[in-house]
Amino acid sequence: MTGRGAEQPVGVNSQVRARVEESPFESLTRELFARDWDMSLDRKNEAFITAFENENEKWELQVNFDDEADYLVSSRSRWSIDKEEIGVVSQALSRMNSELMIDTFGSEIGVNEDLFCFEVKTRSELPEKDAVKSFFNSVEENTGLYGRWSDTVREASGNMEGLREIKKLEDQLSAAGEQDRELENRLRVMSEAFIRRSDE
Length: 200
Hints:
CATH architecture of the domain at 21-154: 2-Layer Sandwich
Shape: elongated
Low-confidence stretches: 1-18
Order of helices and strands: HHHEEEEHEEHHH
CATH class of the domain at 21-154: Alpha Beta
Helix content: 40-55%
Strand content: 15-25%
Number of strands: 6
Distance between the termini: 79 Å
Strand order of the largest sheet: 1-2-3-4-6-5
Largest sheet: 6 strands, antiparallel
Number of helices: 7
């Protein structure tokens, strides 16, 4: 017959239980802090925010856990879109997400109408195995998409004439109340041409 002290040091059981009871959010942030991530933590809402950058700009990256292992990665621009333009830009990007298959791998581009900024969202689930590697893959997907589209959207928000023409066709298509191949094709061609002009 052996006592607890003979099996393991006093306090080990409580440490093990605490580690086992960690939420996915707590486990991930502990690992990120161990890797010297500089981030602001909101434990109550299970969220954190950090700065990211590429050769062109700096932006904010926010991670929110929704339910256990489900989380949302959001890259948000530090540059803003004018209040008068935000609705038109939002509709144009929603159309491009659908028509040009931008929303692959759980990501989509758009605008945050509350913060008046460009935003890329990536929704993922944290697996029990290789959780940190999976998280880094989601961040890479999100920030890569942000980096590829940020300049385009910034230029687009300054070209309201082209965006209003796209919105006009969208409104006509909606008012038609039925499928209109000609309007759909015109809208697709205009959207693609607009993207090319914005990238030039």
